[in-house]
Amino acid sequence: QLPLVESGGGLVQPGGSLRLSCVVSGLTLDYYSIGWFRQAPGKEREGVSCISSSGGITNYADSVKGRFTISKDNAKNTVYLQMNNLKPEDTGVYLCAAGYRGCKTKGSEYDYWGQGTQVTVSS
Q: In angstroms, rounded to a whole number, what is the distance separating the alpha carbons of residues 10 and 17?
């Protein structure tokens, strides 16, 4: 069983919303920071957002600030990414990752990865 499993992706029109979930198993969110990344065809993987193990620190890529919100529920071992006012350029595979080096937006700082969920923003 993968330690991280993403869900909640789909096809949505521009301006719409989606909420992604990252269910963590075998790891304790109390000790791990979680990052969300996205991979679009032909583009490099991009760090979208992260949340620290305490939940007290969050970071966002400039391209999603004011539209995306990261949160977590330790009791459910789940991290969420609420995405509002979606744009076609938000299209990609969204992956969550766990690491113990703090809230980072570089993929190399994370140790465990999920397989991703597809988000397509199109009219």
A: 10
